[in-house]
Design goal:
The structure is a single chain. Helices cover 40% and strands 27% of the residues. It contains seven helices and eight strands. The strands form two sheets. It has a six-stranded mixed sheet with strand order 5-4-3-6-7-8, sandwiched between helices. The longest helix has 17 residues. The protein is globular, with a radius of gyration of 16 Å.
């Protein structure tokens, strides 16, 4: 089994929760993807890092760093950073706060060193794409060029279509893939 297929199996086992739930968008759904149960699991983190790096390679994405909106992107970013180092192709990570800190260096983006231009924005699930759009806006406001946008799972509810209009967007999985009985 390859990284992607094993990750799919783990997401289905650990993160797919069936039953009525209200999403952050306010919409009601009959399933929920609690991806942190997979991406914070030791094997799940390792598989996530490999799956995202392999997807970046297959889509020929060349980036100097990978990051996204904290909290959803945190485990993905860390996994990719660690696995990229193991593979001797280091991709540093960065995290974006909802708003700049009010103290210290007053940063909204943590972890980006000067000189980094081309970045990938990641998130665990794309529904409306609102959190991803916030992350993109913050990165672009600081002069970074978003070369790709990646979701671990695309719910295919409009957010990914909007992102594709302007960005090189792709997902590792669709919700339909995870919901399908194999």
């Amino acid at each position: 089994m390859n990284h992607r297929e094993e990750l799919k199996s783990l997401l289905r086992k650990k993160s797919l929760v069936k039953g009525a739930i209200v999403l952050s968008s306010g919409k009601t759904s009959d399933y929920y993807l609690d991806c942190k149960l997979t991406t914070l699991h030791p094997r799940g983190a390792w598989l996530t890092g490999y799956a995202i790096l392999e997807a970046m390679d297959s889509h020929k994405v060349k980036a100097q760093a990978i990051g996204g909106m904290s909290m959803g992107a945190d485990p993905l970013v860390s996994a990719v950073a660690v696995v990229s180092e193991i593979e001797k192709k280091p991709v540093p990570g960065f995290l974006i706060r909802k708003e700049a800190k009010k103290h210290g260096r007053k940063k909204q983006i943590e972890g980006l060193e000067s000189g980094i231009k081309d970045v990938v924005i990641v998130d665990e699930v794309c529904t409306t794409g609102a959190a991803t759009q916030e992350a993109i806006a913050a990165a672009e406001a600081e002069g970074h060029r978003v070369v790709a946008v990646i979701s671990l799972v695309d719910r295919e509810e409009g957010g990914s279509a909007q992102l594709r209009e302007k960005y090189n967007y792709f997902s590792i999985f669709t919700a339909a893939e995870l919901l399908r009985d194999d």
